[in-house]
Structures are given as structure tokens and as C-alpha cells.
């Protein structure tokens, strides 16, 4: 009997490692164990960086920074970006990118406002309809992104850059370039209400993040997401419906952008047509700082949460200290470069 060739052995091993219920990353090999340890170490290190920032700013401005009022505002400001970043985590783990989330946030907020105005915006039903419309709007854009990437074979950078322009342009057409005001009941209710002393917006963001964190870490959907980012060919050979899964991942990112648009509308009281042009870059920076690999196949929601709060704490602390806001951009940019460098070093260590 003829022995199988080395290439066929390699392909079979690759396929088995990327089974429908497993991650395609040579899970049983020493290299994979090292990768997991390095990934955990990176989360620990960025967590320590966040703790250090909190301690430093608390010592420098204890009467301003380390107050419950300021910290609650900090968390509330980060809650909306966190939703975008969690969706971006899924996308980047598949080795993709989504530049459209800021535009989808704006477009979803605008369409929700239009619907609520048309239905009177005075009843609870109208407000609930608004959030449904916002999320469905984001979902439709996300499905479009995913379909073009998966079935159209267009690079995700190009697809989402195009839909960013389309969604922002559509929002400008619907509003005439002028911000629309949110219904008063939405802004005074969901936007300002608190539960156990914490803004309702924060609770919503935390609940969504926890659910999606568990799904990514423990459920088949998350394992398939990792498998596609690790080796899409092996994942497909093992039975993962790669194209359909990619559509679902981009749809999830769009859905979260729609929810973020509604919560932004509730918090700030306006659609913010021109205020979210850099949200996509902030979300990507948070995800990468949090340890998700731009090459795909590695990352956690826990790391993303930490990555969201590092720039938020820097911005808040610099504002209190009276430091020019430009320095925040410099520091965040340096941290982002360091995170990408660490990711490259981690990949080299895994390959060796």
C-alpha cells in the first residue's frame, strides 16, 4: 500500500485541527500552548497598564479624577465605543476589517429619529420602534458588507470603506447635513436614567458585551470565528460554512453599530452626523490594543474591554490635568504601534 504523501498528511492534519467545533490553530501542539500563554500574558500586561493609569491619575488629581461622578461619566462615554469594538473584535478575528461602523452608527440614528418623529415619538411604543429600526438598519448594512466580502470576493477594506461613504452620505441626504434632535422622552429617559446608580446605557453595553464574550469563548459560533481567522481553507475543508459565517460576523458588527447609534442618540440628544468620523479608527485601535491580532485567529472580548478603557482613561485624565488633547492622540498612537509590534513578535514565537 502506498504511503500518503507529506502534503496530504499536512492537509489532513490542518483540516482536523480546524474541525467545526474546534479552533484551527494546531491546538495540541507546543506552539499553540505558547500562543495561548503569550495571549494571556498580553491581557495581563495591558490590564496592568490600565490599572497603572488609574492609579497615576488618581494620585495626581484625587479630588477630580477619583470621584464616582467622574468615573461614571468615563464609563458612560466608553459604553457606546465598547459596542462598536466588540463587533470589530469578531470581524478582526476572522482576519477582516470594518471601517464602516461609524457611518452605520450615524445612519441608524438618523433613520431611528425619522421613524420616531413620524410615529409621534411620545409613546413607549414609538421609542421601542426606534431601537428596532436602528438595529435593523445596522443589520442590513452589515449583511451587505458580509455578502460583498464573502461572495463578491472584494477585500473588506474596500467594501467597508465604500459603505462608510455610502452610509454617511445617506445620513447627510436624509438630514440635509444638519443634526436632528432626539425625542425628548428618549433623551430624558434612557439617556439619563440610572439603575443602582449606574447609567442604563452602561448596563445595556455590559450585558451585550458579556453575552458576546461568552459566545466567542465558549460557543460554536465563536470557535468557527477563530477557525476562519486561523486558516479559512482548513475551516472550509472541515465543514465550516465560511461564507455564511462571514456574513453573520459582519451582520453582527452592523447590528451592534445600529444599537450604538440608538444609545448615542439617547445619550447626547442629537444624531451627531459629523461627530463620528473617527469611531471606526477608535474601535480598531481599542481591539488591537486589547490583544486581538490583525492577522486573525486570536483575540478576546476581555482584552477589547481593557483596550477600550485605556484611551478613555487617558483622554479623561489629560482633560482634568489640562494637558492638550493632541497628546492623547500621540500616546494612543504609540500604544497602538507597540500592540501591533507585540502581535508580530507573538506570531514569530508561535511559528518557531
Automatic annotation (TrEMBL):
Biased composition (Polar residues): 1-10
Membrane topology designation: Multi-pass membrane protein
Keywords: Cell membrane, Membrane, Transmembrane, Transmembrane helix
Protein origin, superkingdom: Bacteria
TM region positions: 44-60, 80-107, 127-148, 154-174, 195-217, 281-314, 326-342
Signal peptide positions (record): none
InterPro entries the record matches: ABC_transp_permease
Subcellular location(s) of the protein: Cell membrane
Protein name (Swiss-Prot/TrEMBL): ABC transporter permease
